[in-house]
Amino acid sequence: MKILGRPGTVSGLMMRTGQFGFAAASISAMLSSGDTSKFTAFSYLVASMGFQVLYSFALACLDAYALKKNRDLQNPVSVSFFAIGDWVTSMLSLAAACSSAGIIVLYLHDFELCNRSHLPCLMYEISVIFAFIAWGLLFMSFQVMLWILASFSNNPHL
Amino acid sequence: MKILGRPGTVSGLMMRTGQFGFAAASISAMLSSGDTSKFTAFSYLVASMGFQVLYSFALACLDAYALKKNRDLQNPVSVSFFAIGDWVTSMLSLAAACSSAGIIVLYLHDFELCNRSHLPCLMYEISVIFAFIAWGLLFMSFQVMLWILASFSNNPHL
Fold first, then answer.
1. Where would I find the Casparian strip membrane protein domain in this sequence (chains A, B) (predicted)?
2. In CA terms, which of A140, B37, B40, B88 is 20 to 30 Å from A11?
3. CB–CB of A109 and B40 under 8 A?
4. What is the dihedral sign for C-alpha B17, B19, B23, B25?
């Protein structure tokens, strides 16, 4: 079965571009909010999104190269590497996005600090929303890789 | 390829038992820490783990029934249902565990409130650790379901 988002295809390249685009947007929003170093979760979000930018950009370059040179990236070894990379990166991104979201809910809803203090809550929120979108796209890539990997192991003649 | 944790097998039943066991332990630890209603993230953790207890317990019963009656649960329709259920539940659990972990890190490390106040930080930590283990087991089940599902779609003669 041919599914969208396979490595070395236009849809795969678009998915990778979306991943590093939203991750970069999340970092910009967080850094533009000022000093984030006093919150471990927000620093971790920046670090994790930074890692996702590097990872997704590298794979986008690989997809673009494969498209240009007409190379096939869909062999068990490279798909295994992509699957492991996607899995690790997506878990890091989701953990970062959720822990930051937890703190925003604590500030915005539980303690209502956003109305009373001068915290840039809106920028924090925008950053976390972008982080969730970046994670969602990466998770879709991961599921595609797992699907391709399963199809290799179930079709020994491939 | 036969992998561990398939529905209707002893390993599948053990994985489901572990899932609801750790989820229940996480709820007990959180509730024994006292009033959690002032923290949205902790209330959400209890709700999400409660959902996982119900879900995993129902599937453990189904596995036990299939084992006793020697029924085969590995058909495309039921595996699709298990995969969707596992996916939704595991995302809810991970989001809950990460957002609670974010708050614990904020309290323990960033503001060092745990030493100065009488917050039951240790019980919060134990609860979150159990939640992460419960999520890990559920995520393994989800990957097994996805693997079986992919093998169905790639073996049309099955």
1. 6-136
2. B88
3. yes
4. positive
